Amino acid sequence: MYWAEFLTVVVVHLLAVASPGPDLAVVLKNSISLGRRAAIFTSLGVGCGIMVHVIYSVLGIGLIISQSIWLFNVIKWLGAAYLIWIGIQGLRAKRRDGADIEADTGLKLSDKSAFLSGFMTNGLNPKATLFFLSLFTVVISPSTPMLVQLGYGLYMVFATALWFAMISWLFSTARVRRKFLQVGHWFDRSMGFVLVSLGIRLLFSSRN
């Protein structure tokens, strides 16, 4: 009896996850700079970050966040600071020589750190807070059982992780990655600029 509601959630979530934003920028950056394994773990982190928003939306805490200016601003400032910080790391990227590219040496990141980079990027995004609040108040009926709502959340976790894992796989293939690595420092700096810009934009954004 909840199939119509679920299909609406699927469509709305697909449009949201496919739109460019911090999640995509981080996944692309790690795909090119760090390789497939790191990018996959980053994608898993982004997907699991979704569950943070789902849980507080189901529990009603999201409504409190949306109505509390100071709490919303704390989340916004943390998210903006994190995006600016990882963006600065990209802006400081150095050029690799041909031997490094062929040997695939350079930046390395543990699986845990890669996962956390995706998790924090998504979990600290206040725009995601507002999106999920809207989803759970407008699209999903308050009468929908909590277990069903959590089921929607698990679907979005899986679908988000799968979407970004596919992007990770595409951009970390040997031929594509080698082409990007030839101008890798410029790519890293470009992604760094995008992340810093997103962070600054987030810093000065309002709840509207």
Automatic annotation (TrEMBL):
Its main location: membrane. The chain crosses the membrane at residues 40-64, 70-88, 154-174. Keywords: Cell membrane, Membrane, Transmembrane, Transmembrane helix. InterPro entries: LeuE-type. It comes from the Bacteria. Pfam families: LysE. It is a multi-pass membrane protein. It is found in: Cell membrane. This is LysE family transporter.
